[in-house]
Structures are given as C-alpha cells and as structure tokens.
C-alpha cells in the first residue's frame, strides 16, 4: 500500500496497542506477564506498552550494549525526548570507586526525568542499575539551568557547583570541572558534550558559548546549559548529619569514611557511604510512578546476569568486610510488585505471542528488498530506519518499485541495528515492518576485524631457535623445533620449519610464515599440544581467565586500599631542607620530581604505594633517605627491607652518614649483628627509640615489633 502520504508514528503505535496480542497482554493477570517476541522487537514492545498505557516504562537489558539497542529502538518510535538511558556504575558499590562524572550526571538526569515524567516514556537500563540500591534523594532536584540574562553571580555559581560535586581547576578539560577567572566562568557540565564559557557583566550572564577543551577556543553560541550533579552522594546538611550519626555505629575505615562525609568533603569512593548513611535505599523501579510498568528484555539471560552480579557482589562484600546492608539485591526484590512483562525470544507455554518476528535474510539486499516490497504490496506499513539522511535516500532507491518514490514509506533517522515484522494474528496479514539500513546493506558499522598475526623477521626467529627448543605457534600451540627442512610441494621446493607435536604430529611451517612462530620463554617446561585438538585454545582460555582473575583481584585490592585511611604526614619540617641541601651531588630533574611526588603522596590521607625505577647510581636511595627523614620528623618509624646482608650494611652506612647531624637513630638487623645486640635493637624498636631499622628478611620475623611504623622501603631486588 505504498502511498505518497506518510503515516504518523503515533497512529502506528496506537494501532499496535489496539491489536489482539497487546490487548491480551494488557488484560492478562499480573503483576508478572510473559510474552514472546524476537529480540529486535523488544524495544518496540516496550514503546507500544508505554503508548497504550500513557505511562513511563522501564526497559531492562542484560548488559550495556543491549540497553543501548533498547534505547535506540525506542527512540525510533517515541523520539529522543521521550527516551532516556539510566547507566550503571562502572564498578560494584562495595569497591569504593566513584562513578565517573558523566555516569553520575546521566543517572541524576534520568532519575529526575523519571520522577517528573508524564505520559509515555521509556527508560532503558542495564540489569546492574536495576538491582543496585539508590540514594533516596537521587533525581529529586532539577538541574541548575544557565542561560543568557540569568542573574547568578560567579561566586554564587561556584558555591553551587561545589555543592554538586564539581572541582575547581585552573583550566577546564574534563567533565565535572569549573574555573573562575574574574568575570568569566568556564564549566564542563557532567551531561554536556562540550564545556561552556559564561561571560559576566556584573552579576548577570551577558553571553554563553561552547568551547573546545583541547584548544580552549570558542566554537559557537550556547542557549542553555543544564548542570546536573557529577557525584551521586551530595553532602547536603541532612547527609552530613546522617553521616555523623551513622559513624558512631562503625569502626575503622568505614567510620573514617563517614567522618569525611560528615565534614562535607568530596573524595574518590565517597559513594560507598550511601548504604551507611540512609536507612533504606530506593531501587530504580521505585522511581516509576505507581502506574509505571517494567519490561525485561531477553528475560532469562537478564535474570541469569542479575544472579551472577549478585553472587559476585556478595563475595566482594564478604571479602572486604563490608559492615552495612546489601547494596545489590535480587532482581525480584528490586522490581517489587511493579507490573512487569518478561519478554523471551522463544515461545512461552503460558505467555502471549506478540507476533513480532525477525527478518529471515538480513543483510542480503536483493532478498530483503523483495520481501519488503512484497509486504508493502500486501498492505503492510513499511518503516525505513537509517542513521543519516543519505542512507535513508539510498534505502528508498532500493525499495522504489512501480513508481513508488521517496514518500512511499515512513522514514526515520535512527541508529537501529536490526528490524522486524509484526503480524498480530498467526493467520492474518503483516501489519508493520521495520527495515534498517543494516538489514538492507549488511552490518557495516559493527563488524569485527579479524585479528592479524604479527609478523616477525624470519631470520630473527631462525637465529633464536635451536633444534630441540620448545616453540610456540600462534595457532597450534607448543611444539618442539626439529630444524629447517626442504620439501617439494606441487613441483616447487621450499624451506620449512619442522615442529613436532604430541603423539608424533608434525607441522611444516613455510619459511615466509615463520613470523607466527616464537621461542618458548616460559618458566616451566610445558607439555606438547596435539594438532587438530582444542588443547591450545583451552590453554589460552585458562590463561585469559587467570589473568582476568588476577586483574580483578588487583582491582579489588587497590579499591580497598583507596578506602583505607592512612596517616597524612605534615608539610616538610625545617630540618628537611637542611638534609636535602646537604646532599653532596646535584640532583637530576627526574630525581627532584620523584622526591616531590613521594612527599606529596605521604601527605595524602591514604596509604602510599609508589614504585621508584632507575638504573644503578641514579639516586633511588637518596629519594628513600628523604622520605624516611620526613617520616621520622613526623614521629613515625621507618623500616628498610633489603635482600642481602651486604646491602643492609651499605644502606646502614648511607642512612647513618646522611642522618648524622640530626637526632635520628638508625639500627640494623642481620646475621652480622650479635644475638645480644639484636635483642637490644628489638627492644628499642618496640619502645620507639629506633627511628630507622634496616635489615634483611629478619625484619619479617614475628619478634620484630614497631612502636609506630609509618613507612616501609623495599629494595628493588627484594624477593
């Protein structure tokens, strides 16, 4: 039914909502309803429900990529102003890592729009965002709106920005930063694409322009800037009071965490205090109005993903000694009694078949064009979706037939990957078909490039390998290099590397492909792999998992370290300058920079963990001397751990000579020290009379006890 008049999307949604399958779905008993539809049509199902009910609908996907597809598909029908993404944190709430300003701002914006929504709307969120507890105040306040002519003096604006978690800097380059220079305020809102520059005349904004962070040059006029928070925990008066009261019930780092929040400080990981500050956390579903619905896309995968996240979160909470209530809950508990539709790609025995089907031959232009034209002639409404106007014009040309021109179909500029066709009744006609540019022309923008095998110089490989050496082929795994052989294949002679594998298997690698072979340099002798099996792939998978687990452990370890409150050393004492001036050599620029960075780290209220790298004779020990002296001047002891007794002697001499003009006691523990003197050193160390203790692994013995240890220096060769 190709006509020259475009059929409005509103009418299409109205007719879909009045179709038999959606009427059956709406009339089914709740709160949980099950329905089947092809995955590309899950966003369409959510939009039809929102339009039919006239209320916001929360659409949940099992990961961020699926969530983005849901949002893009919903925006194609409702428009971008009626669709909003609610992203998840980049980490679990127990890890003590703050969400980025962009994520925090997007969540605050989405929560505010959801709380104030009226009429149909779709909020797309990954399942982690749906099962994580939220601060009850999230989204309760709207953004600070900045426009030309507004009366908001720079000082007042700066104060408000600090309250919202923004950081004052000299030059604005990242989201969450602002700068004040007289009558000019630069600001990078957490949800904005570019920063804005406000030019004041008195206390009134005279002009407002966007600028590029890289060049700091203006790029164009800005009419409106919406400033949402860039932190999820805003230290209002109420939050500070709650934190002060809650701190009385906790100990250690969590009490310190709450104390800092009670002081109104903004710091990395402060959002970890949200479950400790509030008696009850909200869920994303709680932000929906009472009539709002929830749509769970690919319900089985989403439920499985939620269960895995919960298991990981509970394990992390236990490992880190989390003392508060759970921040991540079961999916069922998080959604509560909200009316819910669980969508599946498969036919559900007790569910409603919505009649939404995937294309049979996507990416094949001729087949897709023929199918779409066939449906059009049969009376279906055809929607064309493409990311740009040029792609839409090209799609029209492909589908144009029998005089049907560019106005024959409803054209939508939207970044939708996959389309579908909708047949309300199993024995009826197709009512609607969505054809995307990727359905017609193939998945051009989302294809993965096959990894290329890195080529190395052939002669280098041959020089490295000797007969009998273990070698690794990038495709076939670990074998034993036998040597170079010459073989005649198809009438031509060539040189080959001969690799021998398990069970007597042999592999001949052409000499021009030896770049995919490398000498095995691992620590232990591995077993040889078999050709034609999955041994090598399984080995690589195990290594990937081990590396991923190790990386996860490191992330968790350092996340916990970031939350641990350490001793913040004071500024340099007057004697510090005297010690540094007495250094008999001229410091290098890098040595001075490293020294300043170490001292700056020591002055932070968290444990320092810094690695100093440098060749022999480049002044690493002097950096340790200055850091140790700073620790002693602050009343803290220092331990210097070295691998050998010889190095212990050398460091003892160096530290003693450098500290000789000052009241600093340096002692050493090693096998060269008599037993009687060792007992004396241990006793004085425990009583705090030894300021710097240098020793080998003897320092790790249970009988070595410090009175107040503030700094540990580990020599680079320590094992």
Description:
It is built from 22 helices and 29 strands. By secondary structure, it is an alpha/beta fold. It folds into five domains: 31-138 and 268-353, P-loop containing nucleotide triphosphate hydrolases (Rossmann fold, 3-Layer(aba) Sandwich); 144-227, Penicillin-binding protein 1b fold (2-Layer Sandwich), CATH 3.30.2060.10; 356-441, no CATH class; 458-533, Beta Barrel (Thrombin, subunit H); 574-714, 3-Layer(aba) Sandwich (Rossmann fold). A seven-stranded parallel beta sheet has the order 3-4-2-13-14-1-15, with helices on both faces. A six-stranded mixed beta sheet has the order 6-7-8-9-10-11, with helices on one face. Mean pLDDT is 86; it is low at 1-7, 402-406 and 445-463.
Cα end-to-end separation: 78 Å
Structural class, by secondary structure, is: alpha/beta
Task: Give the spatial strand order of the biggest sheet.
Answer: 3-4-2-13-14-1-15
Q: Specify the biggest β-sheet.
A: 7 strands, parallel
Question: CATH architecture of the largest domain, please?
Answer: 3-Layer(aba) Sandwich
Strand content: 15-25%
- Report the CATH topology name of the largest domain: Rossmann fold
Indicate how many domains the architecture comprises.
5
Number of strands: 29
- In round numbers, the mean pLDDT is 86
The rounded Rg comes to 33 Å
Q: What are the key terms here?
A:
single chain; 719 residues; alpha/beta; Rossmann fold; Penicillin-binding protein 1b fold; 7-stranded parallel beta sheet; 6-stranded mixed beta sheet; 22 helices; 29 strands; disordered N terminus
